[in-house]
Amino acid sequence: MQIPLLGKKEPDRNPIESAQAEPDQKQPKQTEPKKGLRPWLIGLTLVGVLGVGFTAFRMLNRGDTTADITNATETVISTELSIKIKASGSVVPIQSVNVSPKQAGKLTVLLVEQGDRVRKGQIIARMDDSNIEPLVQQARANVASAEATLAKLRNGSRSEEVASIRARMESARASANLANVRVNRYRDLQAQGAITQDRFDEVVTSERTALANLQDLQRQLELAQNGSRVEDIAQAEAALEGQIASLRNLEVQQQDTVIVAPFDGIITQKFSNVGAFVTPTTAASASNSATSTSIVTLANGLEILAKVPEVDIAQIKVGQQVEITADAFPDRVYKGRVRLISPEAVIEQNVTSFQVRILLETGEDQLRSGMNTDLRFIGQKIDNALVVPTVAIVTEDGKIGVLIPDENKKAKFQPVTIGTTVENQTQILKGVKAGDRVFIKLPDNAKPKPK
């Protein structure tokens, strides 16, 4: 064993290596101590060698207490922590409807294009009404005739009409008398066999016709002189109401050929062109597809339709604030609020979730229907929460903890109890205090010793 000479500079090396002979170095030949060398000098030399080795061991195990670990650690801070529930969703219209006619037919006029804004009641298109127009005109004529009949019954007949009826009645009376005379004469002839039975029957029929005509004119004269009966007026009124109802029904059918916007909105899809045969909306044509038999799709407003996992739905409330980012605008954060939470779950591929509708407070002029979005529901706020970067959380022997620097700036495992994790921060419930530093990465001189 060599002992460095006092005052002689040794080359840089590990202190323990300096205190031991290197295995590949030739050992110097040991000589017998000179005669007369005192024993206490030998003991002093051994004590010096042991002191050098012990000092080197302490230096190795102690580490560099002057090492800067600031860049490798973060401070435990106390802050307000907002719990955020993540979900995905898509932009959908608040209102959306496929506009179609009530009756199948040919499209003759189309007044809008995709992207046009329309107002409620604005005419969008017209259907062919050529088969309804003649029926409407006939119904209007029937109403006019019924109105004239009722007016005549209510107002009564004029004196000229009474005189005319009386004259025709006197003529009918004369015809009836003549017919009666002929019947009596022909009855005698028929009894004598001078005429046939058929000829006699013809004369009898003529008499009956003359009498019926006389009786009808007598009733007309009576009505003209005395005015219409209440029953006749009521019957005429009912007839008029029936004609009016028929006219209104046809007018409604004609009006249904004029297609109007049911609410304010934007034309998002156009399915048909002029000349196309379109049909009323059905379950098959309600979809926004090129095969739809509707005319256009009208949409109003935008909202987010989200799917929230069953485990998180209890933390979602109506009116809750939501942060929204869209794939199309990844650097922008839009604001929204929960408008509706579905009372019934949706199960897809054995995954249970609930539909949540979110009303947009910002971004409605930039987002478009069908865009994909990422959502963060702002949940409970925790005041004075101790938080550390999530990357600082480690495990050792199945225990959760963090690495903190000891007095020698070495990494020391410290068990902790964690709370909620929000993005890149994790709440610490127990184990550290505000102001403590935790390792987020380990420099070589701060790595923990292997056990």
TrEMBL record:
Subcellular location: Cell envelope
A GO molecular-function descriptor: transmembrane transporter activity
GO cellular component term of the entry, any: membrane
Keyword tags: Coiled coil, Membrane, Transmembrane, Transmembrane helix
Transmembrane segments: 40-60
All copies of domain CusB-like beta-barrel, residue ranges: 306-380
Coiled-coil boundaries: 207-253
Ranges where the Multidrug resistance protein MdtA-like C-terminal permuted SH3 domain occurs: 384-440
Sequence ranges of Basic and acidic residues compositional bias: 23-34
Chain segments carrying region Disordered: 1-34
InterPro entries xrefs: Beta-barrel_RND_2, HH_YbhG-like, MdtA-like_C, RND_pump_MFP, UPF0194_transport
Annotated YbhG-like alpha-helical hairpin domain residues: 127-256
Family the UniProt entry places it in: Belongs to the membrane fusion protein (MFP) (TC 8.A.1) family.
Protein name: Efflux RND transporter periplasmic adaptor subunit
Protein species of origin: Tumidithrix elongata BACA0141
Lineage of source species: Bacteria, Bacillati, Cyanobacteriota, Cyanophyceae, Pseudanabaenales
